[in-house]
Amino acid sequence: MLGRGAVQSDYMHWAKYQRPVRYSLSSSDVTHFRLDRLPLTIADLDLDGASHFRYAPLRHAIAERYGVKPEMVVTANGTSMANFLAMATLISPGDEVFFERPAYEPMLASARFLGAEVRWVERHANAGYRLNIDQLEAEASNHTKLIALTNPHNPSGALTGEDDLLAIGAIAERCGAHVLVDEVYLDSAVPPRPTSALLGPQFVVTNSLTKVYGLSGLRCGWILAEPGLAERIWRLNDLFGVNQPHQSETLSCFAFEHLDEISAGTFERLARNRTLFNEFVGTRGDLLCMAAEHGVTAFPCWARGDTEPLDALLRSKYDTSIVPGRWFDMPDHFRVSMGGETDMVKEALSRLGAALDDLK
Ligand SMILES: Cc1ncc(COP(=O)(O)O)c(C=O)c1O
């Protein structure tokens, strides 16, 4: 894991430089959507169109979809930049930030880069990866500036329900802190849940069209925050660029108009793939994992320990990939993603079974 002040995400670097495999259980995007399936022509992508500052049509589309005021929406380059901008606005060096553990490493690395003093709020496997709110209640204080989590949780897929979110919001309010909720997987909760941006001004939410809609290439990300904070985030964004790419903004508006078509079949596929995964785990005495119910990912524990050799064998012999648990500081676990086509996921699970048998 990164030391304080390191200017890098070791996980992201690793993920980007792995040789692509045919049977991927490592990429947490759903199958990428091809825009040529929509009634769109090149003329719709006006190259010299006004690249309006804080492009209003996109802000309105996001606001309408998530039931917030447009003044609460800041657009950003994917959830990654949204997380960075939100934290850079809220954290000063030395500030105390509570992070869920296990955590999504690039988000944690951003907080450390910004000089946060990271403390942990645990998610234990034997508690279904539910956040330990009693611990947070006991340990958070007026030194705490931010509580950061993902919902559903990356890697386990655990969903934090409204009661727990409200309890966390109340702790943050008592401490004068904010709650950052990365909701990049939220639209794949079963059933869908409203954004926690609606729960109070202490909530700051990030999201994008990347994971659940298979539109990673658009880099359409956003932050939802109370208008005063949203304005501060926009102002910080001035350091990083003049405008977002206009074609991407135009396409993103188009995508919001066609979101039902874009996601047609995705939720059924995820449900099928989760069932396949749960059945697979049920056949394996060497894996322990709570049932996958929400989101795209799951995080089994392997009885034989370090999953790095498992990933290496999968890649070299089986053209298959997982994410070893070391990236979440839990080396005897591994992350499985289930957003791909069902036939591919089925074959990937069968190959995973063969590799696990090889290493018995
Ligand atoms: C929790 C979480 N946040 C953000 C991202 C990155 O999202 P984006 O591609 O929109 O930057 C990921 C990608 O794996 C993720 O798992």
Task: Please sum up the structure shown.
The protein is built from twelve helices and 14 strands. With 360 residues, it is an alpha/beta fold.
Question: What does this molecule look like?
Answer:
There is one protein chain. This protein is α/β, with parallel strands linked by helices. The chain folds into 2 domains: 10-32 and 264-358, Aspartate Aminotransferase, domain 1 (Alpha-Beta Complex); 48-257, Type I PLP-dependent aspartate aminotransferase-like (Major domain) (Aspartate Aminotransferase, domain 2, 3-Layer(aba) Sandwich), CATH 3.40.640.10. Helix content is 37%, strand content 16%. The chain contains 12 helices and 14 strands. It has helices spanning 10-16, 56-66, 78-90, 105-113, 133-139, 162-175, 227-237, 246-257, 259-262, 266-282, 308-318, 342-358; strands spanning 23-24, 73-77, 96-101, 117-122, 144-150, 178-182, 203-208, 220-224, 287-288, 297-298, 301-302, 320-321, 323-324, 334-337. The chain has a 7-stranded mixed beta sheet with strand order 2-8-7-6-5-3-4, with helices on both faces. A 3-stranded antiparallel beta sheet has the order 10-14-13, with helices on one face. It has a two-stranded parallel ribbon with strand order 1-12. The longest helix is centred in the last third of the chain and has 17 residues, at 266-282. The two termini are 29 Å apart. Residues 1-5 have low confidence and may be disordered. The protein binds pyridoxal-5'-phosphate.
